[in-house]
Design a protein that fits this description.
- The structure is a single chain.
- The chain is built from 7 helices and no strands.
- The chain is globular and about 40 Å long.
- Helix 1 packs antiparallel against helix 6, helix 4 crosses helix 6 and helix 5 packs across helix 6.
- It starts with 13 loop residues before the first helix and ends with a helix.
- The protein is an all-alpha fold.
Amino acid sequence: MIEVEILKPIFVPHEEYQQFVLDQLQKHYSGSILVLVSNDWPVIKKLWITDLSKITAMLMPYYKNRGPEPRDPASMMRSYLLLLLTNPTKSIDEWVDELRRVPLYAIISGFEPGDTPGVGTIS
């Protein structure tokens, strides 16, 4: 058996994050029962223009090349920033629940709704 070394974490360019957000917003909010309200746009815009992709390179030495595929560090940081922008008094446990409950928060963090990180991953 040949072992393939995968460089971790996986780098997600900011442009790819932006395309992901567009695709997911269209999928979940266009013609759906989910709606965006005017108060959603300022936080969407802040995360849209904030390129956190360089965080991956900064954290690369702290990842091992073995084990399960990690979450994108920029998405993790983006999610934490979103917590601070929207619900700064919530605990990480409460934030994880919020990510699961509010598809918009998952999407603009960089996660697919239904595939958000758990408490152990975020903290």
